[in-house]
Design a protein that fits this description.
This protein is an all-alpha fold and about 80 residues long. The relative contact order is 0.06. The protein has helices spanning about 10-20, 25-55, 70-75.
């Protein structure tokens, strides 16, 4: 386990202490859980994005004909 020092505005630090105390945990554990959750979310997003970008392009218009103009679609 690694110790990390963070600086918070006084009001945020006070609210974090109250929030953690209401949940029978420490501010340190609370912040650690928040970071772990955020990092897991970011990792999942990046993984999904990389999978999406690695897909082969899908051909939509196989007949090679031109698409209708916008005004034609809404007539």
């Amino acid at each position: 386990m690694k110790n990390v020092t963070i600086t918070l505005p006084d009001e945020i630090a006070r609210r974090a202490k109250v929030f953690a105390a209401e949940r029978n945990t420490s501010v340190s554990r609370f912040v650690g859980e928040l970071l772990a959750e955020r990092l897991e979310t970011e990792l999942g997003y990046r993984k999904s994005m990389n999978q999406w970008l690695a897909r082969k392009p899908t051909v939509i218009n196989e007949s090679k004909s031109t698409y209708p103009r916008r005004d034609e679609l809404y007539e």
